[in-house]
C-alpha cells in the first residue's frame, strides 16, 4: 500500500478495510482520534518522512508496526464492536478522554437518561475535587457536550453543573511575561528563552526566577526534570500542565489591559514558547511540550490546528519556525470560543465554589421568605435570575437541609389553588419543575397553561424554585 503525504485518514481506513477486512483507528501524535479529513503528513510524528511511503504486508498487525516505524503514525485496530459501555473517570487520561467521554455521554443522551447524567455530574465533580490536576477534564466534558448532535434538544448543555467544586484555580496559575527580555537576549532576534514564565504573580512582578513554562511548572509543583519519566509522577505533571496552560492562557485573555492585537500576539507567543522549549535530553519532556498547547487548542477549545497549515492553505502564513499559523489560531480563539472560564453553576450562578447557591438557599428558607398553606405546610418561593432545568433541581435536592424539599406536582397544584396566590408569585404562563419521576426527561416538568396542568420536556426555564416542608 502506498501512503502519500496528502492521503486522507478516511482513504487510509478504507484501504485498510479492503485489504485486511478490519476497521482501523488513526490517532493524532498526542493520542486522540484523528478526523477523517486530516492528512497523513500532519499525523506522522517522525521527522523528515519521505513520502510516498510504501508498506507491504499480508498481516494487519505488521502493517501497523511498519506505519509506526516508518512514519511515527499510530494506528490501532478498532474495538468499537466489542467496546464496553462501562465508564470510569479513574481510567481516563489525556490520550483517551475525548473518545471515552463522547461514547459515554452519547449513550446517556440517546437514552435520555436524566439520572445517569446527574450521577455522572456528581462523579465528575468528586473526581476533580480528589484529583485537582484533572481540572482540564471539566472543560473537555463541556467541549464534548458541544460536539454531540442536537444536544440542546435535551438541555444537556445545561446539565453540566460545577456546584460543589472546591479546588482553587490559583493553584494552577502561572504567569507569562509578554515583554521580550532584550537585556538577557544573546541573539538579535527573539528566542523562546527570552520570554519568561513565573510560578507566582509575586515572582513576575519582582522579575524573580523566571524561566520556561516547564521551569514554572516544576516550581509550582516542587518537582524536578527527572520526574518527567514514565510513571505516576509524570502523569500527574502532564495533567497539571494541561490544566495550568488552559487557566493561564484564559487569564491572559480575560485580564489583560492590552489592546486586542497585542493580546492575540501574546497568546500566540505563549503557545510558541511552550512548543519551542522542546529539544531537551528528556524525551518524555519533549513529547510533553510538543503536545500540550495542541491538546488544549484542539481538545478543550475544539479548533483543528491542521486547518491553519500554511503549506496546505494559502490563506495562512507560517508562524516563526512553524508551518501552523499560530497567530491566526490565537486570533480565532480571541474572537471565537475564547477560554470558557465562567463555569456555569446550578441556576446560572456561575460561582465555581457554589457558595452563592448555599447562601441563596439559606436566605430563601429564612422566616421572612416563607408562607404557610392551608394544609399547614410551609412554602419558600422565589424567582431566580439564572436558568435551570430538572437537572439543576436534582443537584440542589441533595443539599437542602432542615426538612426542606422540592415540591412535587400535587404540592405545586395545592400552592396554585390557593385563593390568593399572589404572595406565592405564581404565573399561569410560567413553568415550574418538580421531581416526581426524574428517571427520564419525559416527566418532571410541570407547566401551568391557562389554568391547565401539563407535563412537557426539553425546555430551559428562567429559574423558579418552590421549596416545601411539613
Describe the protein's topology.
Blueprint: E1 2-3, H1 9-20, E2 24-26, H2 40-43, E3 53-54, H3 60-71, E4 75-77, H4 97-111, H5 114-130, H6 136-147, E5 175-177, E6 196-198, H7 201-206, H8 213-221, H9 232-255, H10 260-275, H11 283-300, H12 326-335, H13 355-364, E7 370-372, E8 378-388, H14 390-397, E9 405-406, H15 409-417, E10 431-433, E11 445-449, E12 452-455, E13 461-469
Antiparallel strand pairs: 1-3, 2-4, 5-6, 7-8, 8-13, 9-13, 10-11, 11-12
Helix pairs in contact: 4-6, 5-14, 8-9, 9-11, 10-12
Distance between the termini: 74 Å
Query: Helix content range of the residues, please?
Result: 25-40%
Number of strands: 13
Principal-axis shape equals globular
Number of helices: 15
Q: Strand order of the main beta sheet, please? A: 7-8-13-9
Q: Determine the structural class based on helices, strands and strand pairing.
A: alpha+beta
Please give a structural write-up.
- By secondary structure, the chain is of the alpha+beta class.
- The chain folds into 4 domains: 2-77, no CATH class; 89-158, no CATH class; 169-335, no CATH class; 354-469.
- The protein contains 15 helices and 13 strands.
- The chain has a 4-stranded antiparallel beta sheet. Strands 10-11-12 form a 3-stranded antiparallel beta sheet, with helices on one face.
- A hairpin with a 5-residue loop joins strand 7 and strand 8 (378-388).
- Helix 5 (114-130) packs across helix 14, helix 9 (232-255) crosses helix 11 and helix 10 (260-275) crosses helix 12.
- The N and C termini lie far apart (74 Å).
- Mean pLDDT is 75; it is low at 81-85, 342-353, 438-444 and 455-462.
Amino acid at each position: 500500500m502506498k501512503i502519500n503525504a496528502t492521503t486522507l485518514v478516511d482513504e487510509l481506513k478504507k484501504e485498510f478495510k479492503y485489504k485486511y477486512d478490519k476497521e482501523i483507528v488513526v490517532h493524532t501524535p498526542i493520542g486522540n482520534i484523528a478526523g477523517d479529513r486530516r492528512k497523513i503528513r500532519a499525523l506522522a510524528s517522525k521527522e523528515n518522512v519521505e513520502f510516498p511511503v510504501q508498506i507491504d504486508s499480508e498481516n494487519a498487525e505488521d502493517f501497523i508496526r511498519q506505519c509506526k516505524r516508518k512514519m511515527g503514525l499510530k494506528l490501532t485496530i478498532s474495538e468499537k464492536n466489542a467496546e464496553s459501555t462501562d465508564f470510569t473517570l479513574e481510567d481516563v487520561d489525556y490520550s483517551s478522554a475525548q473518545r471515552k467521554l463522547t461514547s459515554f455521554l452519547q449513550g446517556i443522551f440517546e437514552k435520555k437518561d436524566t439520572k445517569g447524567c446527574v450521577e455522572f455530574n456528581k462523579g465528575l465533580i468528586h473526581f476533580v475535587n480528589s484529583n485537582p490536576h484533572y481540572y482540564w477534564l471539566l472543560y473537555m466534558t463541556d467541549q464534548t457536550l458541544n460536539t454531540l448532535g442536537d444536544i440542546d434538544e435535551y438541555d444537556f448543555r445545561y446539565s453540566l453543573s460545577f456546584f460543589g467544586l472546591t479546588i482553587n484555580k490559583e493553584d494552577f496559575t502561572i504567569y507569562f511575561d509578554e515583554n521580550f527580555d532584550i537585556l538577557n537576549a544573546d541573539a538579535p532576534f527573539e528566542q523562546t528563552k527570552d520570554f519568561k514564565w513565573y510560578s507566582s504573580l509575586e515572582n513576575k512582578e519582582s522579575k524573580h526566577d523566571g524561566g520556561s513554562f516547564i521551569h514554572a511548572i516544576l516550581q509550582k509543583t516542587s518537582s524536578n526534570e527527572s520526574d518527567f519519566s514514565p510513571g505516576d509522577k509524570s502523569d500527574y505533571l502532564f495533567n497539571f500542565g494541561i490544566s495550568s496552560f488552559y487557566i493561564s492562557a484564559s487569564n491572559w485573555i480575560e485580564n489583560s489591559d492590552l489592546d486586542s492585537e497585542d493580546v492575540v500576539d501574546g497568546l500566540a507567543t505563549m503557545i510558541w514558547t511552550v512548543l519551542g522549549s522542546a529539544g531537551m535530553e528528556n524525551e518524555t519532556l519533549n513529547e510533553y511540550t510538543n503536545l500540550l498547547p495542541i491538546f488544549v487548542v484542539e481538545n478543550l477549545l475544539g479548533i483543528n490546528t491542521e486547518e491553519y497549515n500554511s503549506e496546505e492553505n494559502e490563506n495562512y502564513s507560517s508562524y516563526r519556525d512553524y508551518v501552523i499559523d499560530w497567530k491566526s489560531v490565537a486570533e480565532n480563539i480571541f474572537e471565537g470560543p475564547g477560554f470558557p472560564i465562567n463555569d456555569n453553576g446550578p441556576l446560572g450562578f456561575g460561582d465555581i465554589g457554589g457558595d452563592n447557591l448555599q447562601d441563596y438557599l439559606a436566605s430563601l428558607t429564612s422566616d421572612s421568605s416563607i408562607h404557610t398553606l392551608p394544609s399547614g405546610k410551609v412554602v419558600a418561593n422565589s424567582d431566580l435570575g439564572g436558568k435551570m432545568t430538572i437537572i439543576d433541581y436534582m443537584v440542589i435536592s441533595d443539599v437542602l437541609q432542615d426538612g426542606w424539599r422540592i415540591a412535587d406536582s400535587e404540592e405545586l397544584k395545592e400552592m396554585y389553588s390557593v385563593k390568593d396566590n399572589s404572595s406565592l408569585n405564581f404565573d399561569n404562563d410560567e413553568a415550574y419543575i418538580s421531581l416526581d419521576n426524574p428517571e427520564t426527561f419525559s416527566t418532571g416538568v410541570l407547566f401551568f397553561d391557562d389554568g391547565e396542568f401539563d407535563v412537557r420536556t426539553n425546555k430551559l426555564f428562567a429559574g423558579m424554585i418552590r421549596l416545601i416542608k411539613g
